Amino acid sequence: MNTLKSRLRSLAADGVLIIYFVFVLFPILWMVLTSFKRTDELYTTRFFFHPTLESYKVITIGEQFVSGTGAFRPDFPKFFMNSVILSVGAVLLSLLVGVPAAYALARFRFKGKESLAFTFLSFRFAPEFAVIIPLSIIYRKLGLYNTYFGIIWVFQLITLPLLIWVLRGYFEEISPEIEQAAQTDGYPWWQVFIRILLPLVRPGLAASALLAFVFAWNNFVYPLVLGGSDVQTVTVSALSFLSSEQAYYNRMAAACVIASIPEIVLALSIQRYLIRGLSFGAVKG
């Protein structure tokens, strides 16, 4: 009797998890299905339709006009590369600045350390719409509007606080005696930092870098207001599929599917570091 109750409870728990799993992933499934629909099937069919790669072809290669006299060349590949350049550049700059900052906050004692750390974190909490107008004025005066450096710089408001707080908790997990022992053996501080500390915080680096990349890649407001056509990203370019005459939801869905590939590939490639890095950063950061 007890065995039967245990099995029923297990089946009920599994059923609830399956229902929740379907509920959470249904929007993604619907987006993928929409990307394979023709434009004339967007509003006439649900799950049964004639799948086609037309949307992927149009946004990546282009399409021939009906008259046959010309062709449409999309800018989506350019916008995709812009997102790669801006997101990777933002993460690299955050790592260059954030790793030493996280180490300093974890190791050194100085007046106002916690206030400074909270100030970094408050940048992440600040609403984007609260700072976007003054930033737009400053960027236009400094000539940073519609530039790669300008967008990478403003992305630090998103990526840098996250990286500092995750890595700070990770550095605090490492005993200072390890550094002292290495310095006693004759290693200078920079070699101790590079050869010993950085390999120990590798899971935290992977987790924070991935999250920073995701937040930078998905950001919409900063590239929309502070960037023009030269540095437009995939998140902003999705608006180009909507017009007063026609809403190409299938092409927008195809663009979203392609845009999600780098994030999925990165998450799978560093999966073994991700959970450990996030858990340590959450506990101590």
Describe the structure.
This protein has 285 residues and is mainly alpha-helical. It has 2 domains: 2-72; 76-284, MetI-like fold (Orthogonal Bundle), CATH 1.10.3720.10. The chain has 14 helices and 2 strands; from the N terminus they run H-H-E-E-H-H-H-H-H-H-H-H-H-H-H-H. It has a two-stranded antiparallel ribbon with strand order 1-2. Helix 3 packs across helix 6 (148-154), helix 7 runs antiparallel to helix 10 (202-218) and helix 8 (176-184) packs across helix 9 (189-200). The radius of gyration is 24 Å and the shape is globular. It starts with a helix and ends with a helix. Residues 281-285 have low confidence and may be disordered.
In short:
This protein has 285 residues and is mainly α. It has helices spanning 2-35, 54-60, 76-107, 113-125, 128-142, 148-154, 156-172, 176-184, 189-200, 202-218, 221-226, 234-237, 249-269, 271-284, and strands spanning 63-64, 71-72.
Number of discrete domains = 2
- Cα gyration radius (Å): 24 Å
Order of helices and strands: HHEEHHHHHHHHHHHH
Largest sheet: 2 strands, antiparallel
- End-to-end Cα distance, whole Å, is 47 Å
Low-confidence stretches: 281-285
- Which class best fits the helix and strand makeup? mainly alpha
CATH homologous superfamily identity of the largest domain = MetI-like
The CATH architecture assignment of the largest domain turns out to be: Orthogonal Bundle
The helicity comes to over 70%
Sum up the overall morphology in one term: globular
Per CATH, what is the topology of the largest domain?
MetI-like fold
Number of helices: 14
